[in-house]
């Protein structure tokens, strides 16, 4: 089974911190050319400065990942830098509390725009480019791979984050739908749903409430919080030829937490 992604070109959104950063770094270390994309320009510049000596492999793009113009500019910048795009990882997430008894439409629409429509629209743009650049290649070749990152909030609703839970569930269904639509073009679309992983949001939550760490560990059958690097390894598998017959799947990386009984526990 080949896990090589050497020479592949990738876009990773949400790449300035947390899970997105871990994925972008992992793909870079495995030989891919990676465009680190995020809305936080200062944080993005800080992390990409580590790769200043090798701009042939790493570039950065700062922009609002929920705006169509920014998406188009991101794709254009990637093609200018690497000539093609083989991999897209939608790791950008927008997490915000919402009142389950009064989820106003503005909040819900923002959750859907940031967490569903952003990844869906960028996937559509990138898929069109993948199809175009694959013209003339053999029918057995892989055109491209797309991975969407979500959390267990999609299946284990969090009452205090109802809008985010709805958006995550919608994104996972979009993953399945795109997988079917793009399969004839040899583009694979999968998702990774996580919990008990040290995301940026979880880091912030633990700073505010250190006792939450013990609660999460107690609710995780494997008894620990995983570093984001372990989630990145799953993404690596999904975008490699090792997963060339895998599409439309939502892989769960949570140490068994989704098997536990607690429904209302915070899942980040």
UniProtKB/TrEMBL annotation:
<protein>
    <submittedName>
        <fullName>SDR family NAD(P)-dependent oxidoreductase</fullName>
        <ecNumber>1.1.1.-</ecNumber>
    </submittedName>
</protein>
<dbReference type="InterPro" id="IPR036291">
    <property type="entry name" value="NAD(P)-bd_dom_sf"/>
</dbReference>
<dbReference type="GO" id="GO:0016491">
    <property type="term" value="F:oxidoreductase activity"/>
</dbReference>
<dbReference type="InterPro" id="IPR002347">
    <property type="entry name" value="SDR_fam"/>
</dbReference>
<keyword id="KW-0560">Oxidoreductase</keyword>
<comment type="similarity">
    <text>Belongs to the short-chain dehydrogenases/reductases (SDR) family.</text>
</comment>
<dbReference type="Pfam" id="PF13561">
    <property type="entry name" value="adh_short_C2"/>
</dbReference>
């Amino acid at each position: 089974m080949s896990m090589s992604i050497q020479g592949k070109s990738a876009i990773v959104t949400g790449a300035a911190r947390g899970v997105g950063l871990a994925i972008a770094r992992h793909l870079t270390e495995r030989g891919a050319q990676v465009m680190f994309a995020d809305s936080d320009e200062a944080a993005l510049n800080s992390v990409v400065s580590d790769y200043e000596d090798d701009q042939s492999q790493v570039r950065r793009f700062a922009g609002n990942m929920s705006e169509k113009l920014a998406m188009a500019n991101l794709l254009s910048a990637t093609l200018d830098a690497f000539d093609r795009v083989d991999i897209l990882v939608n790791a950008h997430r927008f997490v915000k509390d919402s009142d389950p008894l009064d989820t106003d439409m503005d909040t819900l629409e923002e959750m859907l725009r940031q967490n569903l429509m952003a990844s869906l629209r960028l996937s559509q743009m990138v898929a069109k480019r993948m199809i175009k650049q694959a013209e003339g290649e053999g029918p057995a070749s892989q055109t491209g791979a797309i991975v969407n990152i979500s959390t267990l909030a999609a299946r284990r609703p969090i009452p205090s984050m109802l809008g985010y839970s709805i958006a995550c569930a919608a994104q996972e269904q979009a993953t399945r739908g795109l997988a079917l639509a793009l399969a004839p073009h040899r583009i694979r679309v999968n998702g990774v749903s996580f919990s008990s992983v040290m995301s940026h949001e979880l880091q912030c939550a633990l700073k505010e409430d250190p006792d939450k760490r013990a609660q999460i560990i107690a609710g995780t059958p494997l008894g620990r919080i995983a570093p984001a690097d372990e989630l990145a390894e799953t993404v690596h598998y999904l975008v490699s030829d090792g997963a060339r017959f895998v599409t439309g799947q939502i892989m769960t990386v949570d140490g068994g937490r989704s098997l536990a009984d607690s429904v209302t526990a915070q899942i980040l």
